[in-house]
Amino acid sequence: MSVLQELIPLKVLVIGASRGIGLGFVEQLLQYQSITKIYATYRCEESATELFSLREHHKDRLIGFPMDITDESSIVSAIKQISQQTKQIHLVIYCVGILHDGDFQPEKSLRQIVPENLIRYFQVNSIGVVLLAKHLMPLLRHKDSSMFAAISAKVGSIGDNRLGGWYGYRASKAALNMFLKTISLEYNRRCPKTIVVALHPGTTDTNLSQPFQANVPPEKLFPVSKTVNQLLEVMKNLELKDSGEFFSWDGNLLPW
Ligand SMILES: NC(=O)c1ccc[n+]([C@@H]2O[C@H](COP(=O)([O-])OP(=O)(O)OC[C@H]3O[C@@H](n4cnc5c(N)ncnc54)[C@H](OP(=O)(O)O)[C@@H]3O)[C@@H](O)[C@H]2O)c1
């Protein structure tokens, strides 16, 4: 049985909940009566205003913590605060990611490769998840079912790469996938009831995809609520044997 169908009080952690898909998960998960606490992290307060107003309406169930995933001490500090409130997390949804930011844009060709930009892609899109998995392990080592789901991207699939371009984003998502696979193997030994998966959300109407939406057919550009519902359906159907796999929004397995 998937963690979301368990009839026990569930505690959830959403990382990168300030906006986009992460905020969408918080909104949807608040509808689940079985979820008694949602710990939601944000990086900067300016972009987290919607999360804060949601928190105003759900003070008893929604708790926010600052966390910059590129700073290990910030991860440690947030998890320490969460650990003072609970000894168990049942569902972790990692929604952090970066594709562009002002002059920082995905590369169309080798001429545009800038080492500092590649490092930024890896810091945000790849390394954060393994730091999180390192520090979260004590909260996932319990007798109930649990899940550690990270939003990856199909463009991180090496087998599916037919178009090229987006060197840093693609490589950082491929690295994220390898981290998740490796985390799944260690978690299998250390917290054996935790399913670890990479999820592809499909092109979703957020700030991240906004500059690249022009050529996306309308039926393939999902509103955030649709993406979240689809991913929750996928997550509900996952079993322990699925740990370490890469799933698309429609439930299909993706090639690494
Ligand atoms: N949208 C799509 O079409 C699409 C497609 C495939 C995959 N994805 C993946 O889906 C995930 C969510 O993306 P989205 O579309 O929701 O993008 P988004 O709206 O741009 O949200 C990105 C989130 O990542 C957070 N973040 C960025 N840098 C961070 C850091 N250093 N520490 C902590 N949080 C940080 C942002 O926080 P701030 O508000 O503080 O910046 C924000 O909450 C990403 O992993 C993305 O790669 C999206």
UniProtKB/TrEMBL annotation:
It comes from the Bacteria. InterPro entries: Fungal_SecMetab_SDRs, NAD(P)-bd_dom_sf, SDR_fam. One of its GO terms (cellular component) is cytoplasm. GO terms for molecular function: oxidoreductase activity. PANTHER family: NAD(P)-BINDING ROSSMANN-FOLD SUPERFAMILY PROTEIN, SHORT-CHAIN DEHYDROGENASE/REDUCTASE. This is Cell-cell signaling protein. The lineage of its organism: Bacteria, Bacillati, Cyanobacteriota, Cyanophyceae, Pleurocapsales.
